Queue: 4 jobs
Job 1
Amino acid sequence: MTARREIEAITQRIRERSKPARGPYLERVAQAASRTANRAVLSCANLAHGFAVCSPSEKVALGGDRVPNLGIITSYNDMLSAHQPFETFPNQIKDAAHEVGGIAQVAGAVPAMCDGVTQGQPGMELSLFSRDVIAMSTAIGLTHNMFDAAVYLGVCDKIVPGLVIGAFTFGHLPAVFIPAGPMTTGISNDEKARVRQLFAEGKVGRAELLESESKSYHGPGTCTFYGTANSNQMLMEIMGLHTPGASFVNPNTPLREALTREAAKRALAITALGNEYIPVGRMIDERSIVNGVVGLHATGGSTNHTMHLVAMAAAAGIRLTWQDISDLSDIVPLLARVYPNGLADVNHFQAAGGLGFLIRELLDGGYLHEDVQTIWGEGLRPYTVEAKLAADGSVMREPAPAISGDEKVLAPLPKAFQPTGGLKMLTGNLGHAVIKVSAVKPERRVIEAPAVVLDSQQALNDLFKAGLLNKDFVAVLRYQGPKANGMPELHKLTTVLGVLQDRGHRVALVTDGRMSGASGKVPAAIHVTPEALEGGPIGKVRDGDIIRVDAITGTLEVLISQAELAARSVPTVDLSENDFGFGRELFTGFRQLAGRADNGGSVFST
């Protein structure tokens, strides 16, 4: 089945735009593949260093060029719940490799920071840049040229996009992504948000807040709301980089281990040494990227991916734009309601039918390209399944349920929650921005109110505590872009704005910073581009200016004349506090090199 004409037209537009970069990229992939892995070109001294700690039999195997060697890139650490399960994965992968006559080595590790820990802290200013550090760390791990394929162990916000950029840079190698899965369900996300608002209003203390948070984030695995981490897993599956049905199986279960072992064997099966060579640089093409964007819209996924997908695509020579993302949003219906877009968590989504159900609905409706290459082979239809544990401990797959287990969480196409996607692009005299509308009630999607201009999150919280925000207003938070301070997420604003909205005020946020996949019920025009530090119009807004945020027509305006706006200057703000502490001094070069949000916010040229 082919995709709808509108989907095909956007894909073709991306394909034509990408030709100047995609052609040379594919030539580089072909050249690298023609040199083989590899070890055949290494000197004896090179090889001796590369397998010094291996067993005698492994040294003999690696000394030739017919036994596949699997590189493991891991984001393991034991502080963060999403990454702690990866501790045992390398041994599982090595055992699985030996079972099929291959070898596996940990090629390298990448940093994995948690935005949940650094929210509102100086370390959050390194978060976006960590994606590019992860990409470079991946390259360092694979640059030894010892490997025939690679598996990537990553879950959370910047980790998976960074790994993807690294994988695409080594596009001649097959790439299989292996998730760890979400933690089991704790208290409801809605209850967690309620306690946060009570704390902000001074109605409960820190002890009650910590107890609530600890009941929500309570064990190994990904946070269960549908933020960037779980959006990452959806993307890897719908783009064909996971094995079918792998995304949302809980850690430390027999099925999770079976899926991990299967993924390792699959990676070894698709190397150039076999008969089914699937290099990731050729496998992923414009159709795969469009499928990822469609999945993002259909699930109401993370706003971070309006930057990450652009950067990921660019690493494979594909030029994706915000306009492409916006046009796809106008076409693709919203089929999932997972917090913050609803009350359910990702475990409920999985129980209702999960990605197998969603992918089948989108394929049958013509919203996805079915004729793509995946790590599983030709076509996306094999991903319309549910993975289960067979009696012998291996993975078996059954067709996804014909009927959703809960249509309040996962809807069939005829009962879509809304006819358009969860994300919307805004344009106007303040520049370009992104808004997540799937969690915003329709009556809140147009806000017109006076501006309250701020240069920090703390400034808003101080005004709130002083009782000065009991009114309709648009918070305009500037100097939060990539060049200014690394573009941190701004979730210290979420609770305060939510309280004010619940009190009946019409409020919104406009910022050149980020809010991520946890963007919720308050309308937020984020990623405003160009940023204030680059002279963007957001820096020219003054207190009291009337701002209109219109997520229906897709506009973002300050309601003054163009002549007056042009005559205003952007004030100089002292940003020196962003330059030092918590490692920020090491990232001065990153801030200087960072690109615009609509180009991926990357330090790499795009």
Job 2
Amino acid sequence: MYVEAMSKICSSKWFCTGTNSIYIIHTSLRRYTIYFYCYFLQAQWESDPCYAFYGVDGTTCSILTYLSQTEDFCPPQDGRNHSSLPWHQKPQAHTEKAISNNSSPAIKFIRSRVEKMSERWIQAGLRMKESSNNTVSTQMRVYVLLYPGALSGSVGQHFEAMVERGGPLGELVQWADLSACLTILGHNLVFSAAPGRGSCPIQRPLTFDLIYTDYHGLAHLQGAMGLAFKHYQCRFRILDSFGTEPAFNFASYARSHGYKTLWGSWDLQPLQYMTMFPHTPDNSFLGFVSEGTVRKGSELEPASYKKDRIAVVYGKQEYMWQGKYEYVKVISEELETHATVYQPPGHTLHLPSFIRNHGLLTQEHFQQLLRKAKLFVGLGFPYEGPAPIEAIGMGCVFIQPRFDPPHSSANNDFYKGKPTTRQISSQHPYAEKFIGKPYVWTVDVTNKTDIHEAIKAILRSESFTPQEFTCVGMLKRVLGYITHQNFCSKSVPTWPPKSALRVHLGPLGQSCVSACRRSSLVCEPALFHHLNTPAAMLPELNHLFPSYSPWGRQCGLQQEPLLFSCVAICLDSL
């Protein structure tokens, strides 16, 4: 029956729901070719993720649209040229939510997290709809591709192997929560692990309004798209855990001033980089959702768990424990200390005898352990992951080492080559500075008295989840970005409005971030263009471009908007 139906559609004419286009195919050879591809794609469209990249979802209409717009086997359909329509006003290619059928551990983790938290996301969406008018209208629905490049090719194979051995899951948490967030906001979503690679080329205008990817995916897409890459780069949003500062992003400046690294140099708007934590206002804070909240009545509130005198150590690889024996021993004198260190087959772990090791746990079993624990113990690595926020939300207090001197690309191999000059004062600077005591304790791990005093205080604490790491918090953030961030426009940013601008004097040796924080304000790079004029430069101002030099009595204006920077520090006179 299927072959007969497809033969009728593909042999002489075809019609797609939602369009008024009927095409006649004249030659028998052409009829046979189209029939073959219709049949092949109906049966095999999931065999290569690049088909989903172009919107193929197994339906006849999506297949014929692909054959028309991408492969040139069918005449173009009138009214289907997505790239010529205004931003946010493109027709819906399809409303189904698609996800790669990849059965890899990483995809399984993402799917499992989305399914497990689906009820929470739905309730958050309903609460947000009831409490405000910020709902997604039909005109604001966008067609989105999620492409985690770290899961494809040789990089993907290495990442998958790390996941199975207890490697980093932070990126997967963020991809899962972004998928759920965009779905709840009503956008058309395609999740693919390898677009533009394999069976289908990138040769026609992309149908996606937004493309969320990472640095690996960005390189893949550039290779597949060729010269067309520049045309579409305003649509990219880069999931970038540690952030990319403007000096590293602007390629010519990075080359000439010693900021060129393996990452960066893409000449994007710095706000197109989306971070796991709010490292710098120069980038957009995407975040994720902590699972440490439960439903109580009509609200989602911090969970309350019955706690035992248990500490869980944050470190799933044996090398992370090196040099931390005395630190963990002091903790074990007050609390039964558990670990989840991965043990390779045939390998003997050399952990302290007072540690109860569970081996690598599933996410569900790991969270069950956290719900019983009172303390989550940071060893100093991994840096800036989501686990401490999850643990705090489940009623644990997070204790971590203080770094003296701070870690940075100048003295630390992990940060070396990363496109940031940040100096990390602890394992988790966000938790240290924005949450702090009594939920986060940052200690000198060589000082036993410091550790003992922290443990005594910790035994009296309760759970806490920052609002920005709830479902509602992330929904509001992403909605704001999609509504207001339009990097394809040539006009100056209009969000935030100029009325939000407050000008403050910053001394030499201090960044705009620090100067604003002292006044309980936030540096906003989108407002820099209001200051980048001679009229705005007053004699008493002295900050990095745009700035005024009291020595030379001259204004310094920024000629390259991509270099507007909140984190840059003016150390010398201009």
Job 3
Amino acid sequence: MKERAVALLRRFYGYSEFRPLQLDIITTAACGRDCVVLMPTGGGKSICYQIPALLTDGGVTVVVSPLIALMKDQVTALTANGIPAAAVNSMQTEAENHNILQQLFTGRIKILYISPERLLMEIDRWSRDLPISLIAIDEAHCISQWGHDFRPDYTRLSRLKELYPHVPVMALTATADRLTRDDIARQLCLRDPATFIGSFDRPNISLRVMNNPGKSQRLRYIAMLIDRYRHDSGIVYCISRKSAESMNNELLGMGYKSVVYHAGLSIEERNRAQDRFINGDVQVVCATVAFGMGIDKSNIRWVVHNNMPRNIESYYQEIGRAGRDGVKAEATMFYSYADIITLQGFVDESGQQAINSEKLKRMQEYAESSLCRRRILLSYFNETMDHDCGNCDVCLNPPERMDGTVIALKAMSAIIRTEGKVGFTMLIDILRGASKRDLIDRGYDRIKTYGAGRDLSYPEWNSYLSQLIQLGLIDIAYNENNHLKVTAYGAIVLRDRTPVTLAQYKEPERRKTARGRKEVIPEPELKPAERLLAELKEVRLKLARKEQVPPYIVFSDKTLLEMVRVEPVDMDSFARVEGVGEKKTVKYWKPFVTAIRKFKGIAESLGTGLSHEETLLLLNAGYDVNGIAETKGIKPRTVYSHIVSLIRQDKLTDFSAIITREQYMRVMTVARENPDGMWDILNSEMPDGLPSVALAISDFLLRQKEK
């Protein structure tokens, strides 16, 4: 089974080995055992149910997903690799869905994606007539009330085990703690499921948190990312529709290609925005958390959270949309206490206040931490890392410590003198001696600490007050209009003048730009490898536009980087590049190899017999004549002519998949008894071109006998 699985991986996906746990999961499912699979976004979950579908001779693999974007994305990628797949969902007409279901029952579809709602409508009829080899439940955390995205429709999926008791069920999710994992197995009625937990470490993603840098600095930072990855894509996640709209308008005003995505838009508007982003027509999408589920776009190089997410599960899933190809990516979170106030309101309105409040607290602890951020994330998912990652802001720029005792005393004294009736902004205004009307009307300009912190800027005070909250000296009274209070511990520090150590404030990176205009940055001088990569991306883009698919469906950035490393100059070497399957070898080798040969200064022609070599490659991969014709876009007769040439050149010696013994003997008999009329007789009995193959085989056998 392992050999077959690796052969299928190489043939259809172009990879020579599986990632950790994938093969174990595949063999477990293929042996008929239920399993729960926990792998991070971009960790390779889809391979775990797609390969078992190819390993089985009969039956269909049904993939249950609530994400139409995932269905479309996966089906496009599978068919591009030569795997018969389809989806049934509400975005298609009933006629389209009916046609797909007809193909399903005739055995022409190997993998079917379907929503839980539609599956439950169809399943009673299917249980009588449709052989199913595997049921995969994607986004399985949706079935658990302990999960971060509970969906009541998912709970009805327990019926699957009633109707298909002997069919293995694979439950997959990117984010689930132990409580949620156990609940998934219970809700789906899984029988002695094997549990697989992949590593959550995504070392290629650099992690960073910035404490309320202000609107202008946020925009400068996002603009810097867009410019740094000008040929790739990024996502800005926002807490509300209004803030997503605002961010999009700001970026458009700066001259960047941006779109907005949120649930308030029509389906057509959302689909148009998503398609423009997937196809690379825009550089960035400004979106609420409704965006991105199921998108497999491989060249998202950065994700920015304009606001703190409500829990670590959501945060980890969203940053996981960057760097899915394993290439360097960046994830930055902007964080402020205003976010916590807003999110706490969401928690209070939820039906599970206790658990959601605890999840929000853990998210806040991550944002405020001065420890390695990756270790905190991995610890949340019960994974231990015994060293700092070296690729987060805390590791790369350890905070410089300073004596913050005076700062702490000034802040706490001001809170006490205002009787704990001011919030974050008002306290900073008092300390900095602002002349705002509401401050003066309330008499705060007459307290002793008014203006005591003029020596510090607003961002500095914002940073230091946040740290005082993290240290437990100050607390936010959410039930009193978010006023600041001195804690019991803070009162002791204030009374005893206990030393307080704070992290030194650092000025964020700045870019000098004209207001409202994008800074014009010249294209950097590229190294040879970078120039070749840019040319291969251009080839990919032209092919993608011609085929009307996203560029990453043609090849991922990681595969293009492998081409840059290997520099294949013929079909054979191109076929050996990691990420290049057999169908894509035949389909794409010429334009990419031509570009590489031109880059290397190789002037010789690619030759004229290569179409025959493509046919040989597909024959060796197990394609039949009709499959080769379909893949290459030629007629079966032409394929037979290639086969004749290959036999005459002694390049093809196994004919069992091309012609039966009975067909061969029939051709030989007619050729002997009626040589003048043989073509008229045989062309009515067998495919046009097959008699020529039989004659070529006869000549081959004579040559072998003479040798």
Job 4
Amino acid sequence: MKGFFKNVLANIVAIVILCFVFFFFFIIMIAFGSMSSSESVSVKKNSVLTINLKTDIIDSPTEEKQDIFNIKNKNMNVLIYDAIEAIHKAKSDDNIKGISIEVDHLNAGITHIDDLRSAIEDFKKSGKFVYAYGNGVSQTSYYLGSVADQYYLNPSGGIELKGLATEVTFFKDFAEKYGIGIEVIRHGKYKAAVEPFLRNEISPENKEQLSTLLNDIWANTSSKIAASRKMSSEDFKTAVDSLYGMIPDLTLKYKLADKLIQKTEYDDIIRKKLNLSEKDKLNKISLHKYVDSFKDKDSDSEKIAVLYASGSINNGDEYNEIYSEKYVKYIKELQDDKNIKAVVLRINSPGGSANASDEILFELQQLKKKKPLIVSFGDYAASGGYYIAMAADKIYSEPNTLTGSIGVFGILPYFKDIANKNGIRSDIVATNANSAFYSSLHGLTPYGVNMMTKSVEGTYKRFVYFVTQNRKKTFEQIDNVGGGRVWSGTSAKNIGLVDELGTLQDAVKFAAQKANLKSYSVDSYPKALNTFEKFFGNMDEDEISARVIKNKIGKVNYEILEQLTDEKLKSEVKMEMPYKVSIK
């Protein structure tokens, strides 16, 4: 017995020591990370600015990878605003002699790549070179790389150049088979977010809007690739339709690539371009490090604030995505900060909670009374994302932004049939006529359906009202282009849903002009979390579980699971876009 207690005590002491060592190790990691991030970066002579596989282009500080347990991910995040500023700075930087694009799979949105391409096109006017190299190249990466003076491909590589397509998955038969009922209430024939629960095939309206949207984006994208590669539109279409990019020899024959070489041979070409000997080191500086060499060195007291609103819109006070309580605080801080002379709201959101969107819009309207408020759209500014833009003095959209989706819906699943099949039933005892207008087993009562419909209709009318005020149009005009329909930025400009086609940089410049500023610095909000906050901000059990599941099944599959299981996503009227589109 004495030996037993001795062993137990020894194990307890060992566990305590291990916990202490573990905690001490992470404190050192956090301190070391903070020290390394504060080191200054110098740019050597004869450097090449490199966009490589370790670069993730993100829209907002809230998109920063915050799970430090995920040690597999060593990519560096760069804000799209900073990336564009870096390329503009490199144009006149004597130490930067050219740009090398070395990405097979670029993690960036379609509008981000548009802006990067435009900035690199402008960079080329300096006379400096732009080269690109690829192995197994995604369509996204080729879209960026095709801007180069010369495109080099690995002899055993390929280019996934295939055009755009979308696949809509339907759950109606699945729900019926397993006894899951789904009450859907919507306004707008184009509000396709609910179609997978109502139909077994795509509706004519949804097919029409998807076809228009994809063709708008592809026309813009394909014309730029063809022009950069000096191909006729007919030849480029043939190459895409025939999947010639998959065969290395055919990429040469059809002008998709200039030469098939190994990576070391590519580096030698750059070395020769710089007149370096074999003994000289090839100085490549990543986009991330180059940004660090000049970022946050502005000293102007007068500032333009860029408030990033990225992700779905929700009620609550969390950091990631757009949570109404958190954003109300941000907006009030910007409103009261005397050094902030104007605000640019950068929206990259498919929408979400109607209530949260309304809260944010109100506070933005109060902000606008005190200082200029300019809006810039990223990849998405749809539904609730478009709604919160209605406080703007002026709206800038990218040509490929998914815009509009002026519509409202509610989804309420119930499980009466599946419960009954498995011997589960319930009785309800209530104090009032509609105390149980909805339950997970019985669904909505007829009166509940009537009131939910009125709620959705009322929310839609409120949505359209704010759009009519901002866009200076009638209810009928907005209703005709609303109904939940999603438009490209180009089409949105043509029908008056936005003011100008332009970048985040364009919006910042206009904000400065509106505030009569000649000299200013740009501040980002919300501020990125430091290493300490990233670590201790992830200690919530549910959050850790969610991240583990997301890593295992993938982001897209997790979003589908979340729609079916997250109570807060099912308990309110939604202003949300029906789908996401990405070029892959």
